[in-house]
Structures are given as C-alpha cells and as structure tokens.
Design brief:
- The structure holds two protein chains of two kinds.
- By secondary structure, chain A is mainly alpha-helical.
- Chain A is built from 26 helices and five strands.
- By secondary structure, chain B is mostly helical.
- Helix content of chain B is 76%, strand content 0%.
- Classes of the chains: A mainly alpha, B mainly alpha.
- The interface between A and B is small, with 10 and 12 residues.
Chain lengths: 691, 101
C-alpha cells in the first residue's frame, strides 16, 4: 500500500489509497498479446473462414474488453490500481557506471487503464463494424491482420512501463497505419498517402527516439516511474537533459498526434478504409502523442515547462500551448472548406487533438485526457457514420450526398448525436470535456488561448452543421438509391452513441456516483504528484461561453447551409476573398513541406549520391579489387600449387609405389613360399645375430 | 636323454620339405612336401616333450592336433587340386596363377 499523493492539492478530500493489484492486473498482460495471437491466426486460417479472419480479431478484442472493463471498474470503484509488471529481457549496457536494462511489461494505473479500455471498447465496435463494412473487399484477411497488428501495437504502446517498449509500440502502430492507409494500393494516390504518413511520422520519430535517449541516459533509467520521480525531485543537474528530452518528445508527439505543422499526413491518411480512420486516425493511434505528454507529465510540469528556449522568447510550455492552439483553430477552419466527408472529420480530429495538446501542455492533465476519452467515442461514432454513408453512396464527396436522413435513419440519428457531442452541446460528452479544457486554460492564465479555444468551439459547431446539412439534408445528388447499412454496422453506431452521450458525467467536477470515483480521482492518482488543477465545481460562466460559441456555430451554420446547402449560391457565399483560397490550399502547408523536402532533401540526396558514387563506391570497388587480386593469388599460388600439389604428390607417390609393388604379386604359390622361407631365414639370422 | 639326434633328423626332414615345396612342379608333390614339413615339426614336438615331460603331455597332444589338421588340410588340398585339374587338365603349379588379381 503506497500512500497516495493526489494530483489535486486542493482536492484533498479525495484522498484514496493505492491498492495493490489483484489477479486482474496479472491478466492485463494478456491484452498486449492477444491481438498478436489473432494476427497469426488470421494469417494462418483467415482465408478459409466466413468473415475471412475477422472472427479472430473480434474475439481478441472481446477478450481485451472483458479484462479492460474489469480493471476499469476495479480501479474506479475499489482502490486505485498502481501496478507494474516488468520482465527484464537483457542488459543494454553500461552508461556512466549504471546498468541500462531492456525490460518489457505492462503498467496498470489509471492512465493506462483508461487507454486500455478506450482501445478495447472502440476497437471491438470498430472491428465488428468492419465485418460488415469490409465484406466482399479485395483483401479482407490482410485488412484484419493489419488491424489486429495495430491493436496489439497500440496496447503495447499504452501499457509500456518504459520508453523503449513505448517506442516499439509507437513504431508498430506507425507500421500498421502505413499498411492500412495503403490498403487499396492499386491506386497510386493511396500508396503516396501511406508514404507521406510514414515519412512525416518518421521525422517526428527522430525526436521521440532522441528524446528517449536524452531522458533515459540522463536519468539513467528508461522506466516512466523513475523518470517521473527524478523529474518531481527536481534535481538541478537534470534540467538541461529534461528540457532537451521534453522538446524532442514533444516533436515525436507532434508527428503522431498530427500537430501543426506535422499535421499534413492525417487528412491524406483518410485514403484507408473508413474503420481504419475511425479507430486509428481518430480514436486511438493519433492520441498516442497526447498520451505520451500525459505519461511524462511531471517532466513538463516540474522540469521543462517553464524553461526558456529560443533565447528567452518563449517557454517550453508556451511553445507547446501555442502549437496546440494553432492546430485547434487553423485545422478546424480547414474543415469548413473540405468537400470530402472524411476529410471534414479528419481536420476536425486534428483540431480536437489540438485541444488535447493545448490542455495537457497548459497543465491540464485530466482535462486533456478526459477530452481524449470522450473524443474517442464520438469521433469514432462520426467516422463509422461517415463510413456507413460512404458504403451506401459509394463516394466520399459530400457533393454526391444529400437528403440521406430519410434513407438512413439510424446513421442520421447517431451522426447527429456524435456531432452534438463534438460541438459541445450540454449534456453530451464533448461539452464536459471541452468545458474542462476551457476552465484549465482560464485557470492557468492563458487568456488569449482561451478565446482561441472558444473560437475553435464555434468553428467546430459550424463545420459539423455544414457537414450534416450537405450529407443528410437537401436532395440526393449521387447515383442509385442509397440504403441503410446492415445491423452489423448500425449496431456499433448505437453502442458508441451511448458513451458519446453519457461519458461526460464521469468527470463533472464535484459529482460522484456513490463508491464510483470521479474520473479525475482515478485517472490522476499517481505516486508522483502531478500538480495540476482541478475545479471543485463546474464553472458555469465558462461553460456558458463555450456552449454559447457552439450554439452560435450551429445556428450560423444552419442559417448559411441549412436550406440550400447543395446549391451554387451557398457555395458562392463561402467564397470570401483571400481566406477561401487560402483554406482550399490548406495554408499551402503541403507546398511548404514539399519545398522544404525539395530544397533540403534534394541537394542533400544529390550530395549523398555523389559521395556514394565516387567515395563509397570507390572504397568498395577498391576493396573488391584488392580482394580479387588476393583471391587470385590464394587460388593460383596457395591453393593450386601448394595444397593441391601436396595432395596430388601424395596420390602420385601412392600410385607409383603400387605399380612397383604389384609386380611382386605373381600369383605363383611357390614364389610366395620362397618369400616366406627367405623371411623366416632372415628372422632366424636376426635372432642369431642380435640376441 | 639326448635330444639332438631327433632335432637333426627333424631339421633334415624340414629342409627336404622346403626343397620339395620350392622345387617340385606337381601340385600333389608340393602338398606332400608340406606334409613332410609338418611331420618335421611333429618330431620336434615329441622330442622336446620326451625331455621336458610336462604333466599334461602338451607336446604329444599338440602333435596329435597337428596330425588332425594336416589330414584335413590334405583332404581339402587334394580336392582343390582335383578341381583345378579337371578345369585345366594340368597339375602343374606353374600353371596356377589364380592368386594373381
């Protein structure tokens, strides 16, 4: 029993004790393994099964959801779990007299349980949905194998007790993302999107790996608990290491969580099948960066946050909040002009990730993670709804949709629920989590960013209204007659709609359900104090501002698009000079990225090519020529003459001796007998002489 | 008892046998020469036994074994010679170069 230091210094009445983990924490390790078992079974047996291997993926996720749910309730209701199961795999080496060991294992604490449950719950529903969505697809087995691989890598990532395992999971989800974005590789654009996602993430991963090396080497241990303890202890000697490590880690998080300016891959990642977009590029994988920030929260809170960088212009925290704020507003604006329904949701995801990042960076540990938690449900719901629409219409473009509310009632209703939750309408999930982010920004004194976030809420409501108006209202403009999706697809929509509505109540400040702890209590409880702020009661003034922005967004959106979304006039109305072309061109970020790659990578590649052709190849060819000459000498001189000569000589000597001796073999008995006699005489003589 | 005269006779007999073995061309005669050499050995065995008087009479028993083996050997040897004679119409040892590979 560890004495628990609660995150909220003010919230001392929540004093709970950390419970030693029960059997469930032992079984938690199964979650990290089962998707990989499913992956192997799918590859082995999948082709011949009814759902082409999807059964295994669903079964593994079902098992995971059972374990995660047990942990979830044990954690929220009984004692707060804080267990780490670690197995030492091997020593990496010595660094400044300390053993660096490679360990694998799994963590069971509030943060990881929350992530386990989100991955398992949303994952299971998306997998079930995918059974219907992917039916009859070209490569269903491949799809489910990659998807299971993703689930396993994601659980390894969120269960990681140290930075090394986190990197393994991190790269695993990157690989699965690459495979699934390029699922329809017959189309070159999809392959390019996959490459773009992979390479953009690689840029960020350099930061992650270097950051891990900085922190791990500087503190002498890759374990999160030790890194956080060292950060909380606040050793002055670690300051530089912590700042460098924290910034590099943030670069890694920027890539995976699609923060400006590394967001460019996420909209293109929509090339993958829609269930992939729902689970990976909305609910779970892209939140890995936010998760990393939260996992290393004490490093930012105590060591790196207030350090000034870039010659004192800005603090680390300021930089992170700034990037989050840019992301949340600028990317939300892009969703206004996108015509592809999935791209609207993709930009919305980037924008919401900006909210999370802003909150975590500003010091709102729970606020950011709570938004991650609720966002996973309603954004997965929206993506699956979009998938259902795309399934019916056979097009991603909203110009091919319209008027679907009568044809697809289930999709329409759940989509409305998801949109209201995303927009932040009371009492749906998004309202409470967005309100908490606003409260955090207000408390931490980021007034400007607070108003940016309010503007973001307005924009969110606005673009979701536009998307709904274009998709479900007006008249149908596509081909054929759209039909509602089968139950296997609408079922998960309704199941996801439930937490989208009620998940917010888990963390209403001051609200407790009997023995069921508040989200804040069980999420933020750590051995290392987090030192972030939790309000005692909802701040209804701030909530009103956020809600007002959302309602205003919906109202304005309905005024602009509600009646005639599909007409040319509605489109013309949006074409504001300067702003509209700028948004259509996505702030020219793709061009800038290309230019950077072209101007830096191009000459660098040519220089490397020159070095390769003239220096490296010269060395290699020279070595080759020397080796050949040496080889010829060894062959001709040593092997042919020396070794072969010796053996040939032995053989020839034997041959000559044999030829000479065979003449003795006359076959005449009497000559042999004479030989005997001579021999016997010689022996007798020898005995007589030498006795 | 003086053993020398027996040894001299045995040596003479053995030398006769060697002579016969090396010189005679008729296979039967060669076989007989071998018998002479064996008998020379037997004579030596008996002679030494009569001097040494071992309790088990080893020399005489050994001589009886030699005689037995010699009888068997003559039987097989004559059979071989007979078969070769049938095949080659000759009992001349110089014609028998079958032991050459």
């Amino acid at each position: 029993m560890n004495p628990l230091v609660l995150a909220a210094e003010e919230g001392a009445e929540h004093a709970v004790e950390l419970a030693a983990g029960g059997a469930a924490t032992q079984w938690a390790g199964l979650m990290l393994v089962s998707p990989f078992v499913a992956f192997l079974l799918i590859i082995w047996l999948g082709k011949n099964m009814k759902y082409k291997g999807g059964e295994f993926a669903v079964a593994a996720m079902g098992l995971n959801l059972v374990i995660a749910t047990i942990l979830f309730f044990q954690n929220a209701q009984g004692g707060i779990l804080n267990d780490t199961h670690i197995f030492e795999i091997g020593r990496i080496g010595l660094f400044e007299g300390r053993d660096l060991v490679f360990e694998l294992g799994w963590m069971v604490d509030g943060l990881s349980i929350m992530m386990y449950w989100v991955v398992a719950f949303v994952g299971l529903l998306v997998f079930i949905y995918a059974l219907g969505y992917m039916h009859g697809d070209v490569r269903v087995t491949m799809f489910f194998a990659s998807f299971s691989l993703f689930a396993g890598a994601m659980l390894i990532l969120v269960g990681a007790p140290n930075l090394i395992q986190l990197i393994i999971g991190w790269e695993g989800v990157g690989l699965a993302s690459y495979l699934l974005i390029g699922h329809y590789w017959e189309d070159l654009d999809n392959v390019r999107s996959g490459n773009k996602a992979f390479l953009t993430n690689k840029v960020a991963d350099v930061g992650l790996i270097l950051g891990a090396i900085f922190l791990g080497m500087g503190i002498g241990d890759f374990r999160f608990t030790h890194i956080n303890e060292a950060a909380a202890a606040g050793e002055a000697g670690l300051q530089t290491v912590a700042v460098a490590g924290a910034l590099l880690m943030f670069l890694g998080a920027m890539g995976k969580s699609a923060q400006f300016p590394l967001h460019i891959w996420l909209p293109d990642a929509m090339a993958g099948p829609t269930p992939v977009s729902a689970l990976m590029h909305a609910a779970t994988m892209v939140t890995a960066g936010v998760y990393l920030m939260a996992r290393l929260f004490p490093v930012y809170q105590y060591m790196a946050g207030e350090a000034e960088i870039l010659g004192g212009i800005i603090t680390v925290r300021g930089l992170m909040v700034g990037i989050g704020a840019i992301t949340l507003l600028a990317m939300g604006l892009l969703a206004l002009v996108a015509n592809d329904l999935k791209k609207v949701l993709a930009y919305s995801t980037v924008s919401q990730l900006g909210y999370m990042m802003t909150a975590v960076a500003a010091g709102g540990y729970t606020a950011g993670l709570f938004h991650l938690f609720t966002h996973a449900f309603f954004k997965a719901l929206l993506f699956l709804g979009a998938g259902s629409v795309i399934h019916a219409v056979h097009s991603n473009n909203m110009t091919d949709m319209g008027g679907l509310r009568k044809d697809m009632p289930h999709t329409f209703r759940t989509f409305i629920i998801g949109s209201l939750a995303l927009a932040g309408i009371i009492p749906l999930a998004g309202f409470w989590s967005k309100d908490e982010i606003l409260a955090t920004l207000d408390y931490e004194g980021y007034t400007f960013v607070f108003w940016v976030a309010v503007a973001g809420a307005f924009v969110t409501a606005f673009y979701m209204t536009r998307a709904i108006a274009l998709t479900f209202f007006g008249t149908y403009k596509g081909h054929g007659h759209p039909h509602e999706s089968p139950t296997i697809m609408t079922g998960p929509l309704w199941v996801l709609a439930v937490p989208s509505v009620i998940a917010g109540f888990l963390n209403v400040p001051g609200l407790e359900f009997g023995s069921f702890h508040n989200f804040t209590t069980w999420l933020a409880a750590r051995v290392v104090p987090l030192g972030d702020h939790h309000p005692e009661a909802p701040d209804w003034g701030l909530a009103a501002i956020g809600l007002g922005a959302a309602v205003l967004g919906i109202a304005l959106g309905w005024l602009v698009f509600g009646r005639d979304a599909d007409t040319q006039e509605a489109r013309d109305r949006l074409e504001i000079p300067v702003l509209y072309p700028l948004l259509r061109a996505k702030y020219f970020m793709d061009h800038i990225a290309w230019a950077i790659v072209g101007f830096t990578m191009g000459p660098a590649a040519r220089a490397m090519n020159w070095v390769n052709t003239y220096i490296l190849d010269g060395i290699v060819n020279g070595v080759g020529a020397i080796t050949m000459a040496l080889g010829r000498f060894v062959y001709g001189g040593v092997d042919q003459r020396g070794i072969d000569g010796f053996f040939n000589g032995v053989a020839m000597a034997s041959d000559a001796a044999g030829s000479a001796m065979r003449k003795l073999q006359t076959g005449r008995v009497q000559q042999y007998a004479a030989g005997f006699m001579v021999g016997a005489l010689v022996l007798v003589a020898a005995v007589a002489i030498f006795r | 008892m003086i053993v020398n005269q027996f040894l001299v006779v045995a040596a003479a007999l053995f030398s006769l046998g060697v002579y016969g073995l090396l010189v005679r061309r008729n296979a039967v005669m060669v076989l007989l020469a071998v018998e002479l050499m064996l008998n020379a050995v037997n004579l030596n065995l008996i002679a030494f036994e009569s001097v040494l008087r071992t309790p088990e009479a080893l020399g005489q028993i050994f001589a009886i074994f030699v005689i037995t083996v010699a009888a068997a050997e003559v039987g097989i040897g004559l059979a071989i010679i007979l078969l070769i004679f049938r095949n080659r119409r000759s009992a001349n040892v110089d014609d028998f170069n079958l032991m050459k590979l």
